[in-house]
Amino acid sequence: MLRSALVRISGAARMPLIVKNTPRVPAVNCARSMSHGPTETDEEFDARYIAYLSRKDIDGWELRKAINDLIGMDLVPEPKIIIAALHACRRLNDYAVTTRFLEAIKDKSGHSVDTVYPYILQEIKPTMDELGISTPEEMGYDKPELALKTVFE
């Protein structure tokens, strides 16, 4: 019993020595630069997405990934990028993605939805007519399906 008590006391006595002798990692304060590579111009950005979406071998996952990346950015895509995406949707015969993409573009317009979204529709309307694509408003998706009339009017 005395031996077990001495072992515990000696173990506790050695512990602070181990902690004191361990090297400490200093806290590093460094500025993080988010853009390490060359910057991309707007024209290069547009050309990159148009080339990606215009590929003949694009599949559904790659299309959704490109659209998700575009919607995740702090921008409203240019009409020529939207047109390339609509053509890709048509090649893949994926009408649902066109509708969701147009809804996301309207949502991305933010406070300027009254000016930006009509401009986008005006620019892509010939392509939509060519491909047989309706806007979400033409399909009634801008109104809730089971909405009740307000009683406060």
Describe what this molecule looks like in 3D:
This protein has helices at 2-21, 42-53, 60-72, 79-92, 95-108, 113-131. The protein is mainly alpha-helical and 153 residues long. It has a domain at 44-131: Serine Threonine Protein Phosphatase 5, Tetratricopeptide repeat, CATH 1.25.40.40. Helix 4 (79-92) packs parallel to helix 6 (113-131). The model has no long low-confidence stretch (mean pLDDT 84).
Summarize the topology:
Layout: H1 2-21, H2 42-53, H3 60-72, H4 79-92, H5 95-108, H6 113-131
Short account of what is shown:
The chain has 6 helices and no strands. By secondary structure, it is mainly alpha-helical. It has a domain at 44-131: Serine Threonine Protein Phosphatase 5, Tetratricopeptide repeat.
The best one-word shape is elongated
Order of helices and strands: HHHHHH
Distance between the termini: 87 Å
Let me know the CATH homologous superfamily of one domain.
Cytochrome c oxidase, subunit Va/VI
> Mean of the pLDDT scores?
84
SS-derived structural category: mainly alpha
Number of helices, where a helix is a run of at least 4 consecutive DSSP H or I residues: 6
Which band does the percent of strand residues land in? under 5%
- Main sheet specs: none
CATH topology of one domain: Serine Threonine Protein Phosphatase 5, Tetratricopeptide repeat
Radius of gyration: 29 Å
Given this structure, which CATH class of one domain is correct? Answer: Mainly Alpha
Uncertain residue ranges:
none
Membrane topology: Peripheral membrane protein
Pathway: Energy metabolism; oxidative phosphorylation
Keywords: Heme, Iron, Membrane, Metal-binding, Mitochondrion, Mitochondrion inner membrane, Phosphoprotein, Transit peptide, Ubl conjugation
GO molecular function: metal ion binding
